[in-house]
Structures are given as structure tokens and as C-alpha cells.
Amino acid sequence: MWDRLYRGDKSRSQRGLGLGLSFVKAIVQAHGGSVTVHSTSGNGAVFTLALPLLPIPRV
């Protein structure tokens, strides 16, 4: 799901490139954060983005 061009269910008619979540993960990680997902079949998914309150010092 986090890979570029990943497409979940191929039978869906929704258009898209499959790039969104890979970009989200890359940007959040670049800022020292993390992204997690909790999915329950038939009930959808909850995505959590966690970012640090203070900037990470660059070395």
C-alpha cells in the first residue's frame, strides 16, 4: 500500500495513479514523523500521521 503505483482492488472503476500514499509517507518521514494504518474489513481504514512538535536538528 505504501509503494508507488500500488493499486488495491483491481476490480474497482475508480481512476488514479496509486501515488498518494507513497508521497504522504515520504513527506511525513522527511519531517521526522510516521504514518500508520489500521484497517478492518468492511469498516474502512484509519490513517494516523504523527509529526514531532519540534524540528529535528540537521547535522
Give a nutshell description of this structure:
The chain is α+β, with helices and mostly antiparallel strands. The protein has one helix at 20-30, and strands at 34-40, 44-50.
List the helices and strands and how they pair.
Layout: H1 20-30, E1 34-40, E2 44-50
Structure description:
- The protein is an alpha+beta fold and 59 residues long.
- It has one domain (1-54): 2-Layer Sandwich (Heat Shock Protein 90), CATH 3.30.565.
- 19% of the residues lie in helices and 24% in strands.
- It has one helix and two strands.
- Strands 1-2 form a two-stranded antiparallel sheet.
- The mean pLDDT is 77.
Distance linking N and C termini: 32 Å
What's the CATH H-level homologous superfamily? Histidine kinase-like ATPase, C-terminal domain
Please describe the biggest sheet, giving its number of strands, its sense, and whether it closes into a barrel.
2 strands, antiparallel
Strand content: 15-25%
Global morphology: elongated
Strand order of the largest sheet: 1-2
Order of helices and strands: HEE
Characteristic key phrases:
59 residues, alpha+beta, Heat Shock Protein 90, two-stranded antiparallel ribbon, 19% helix
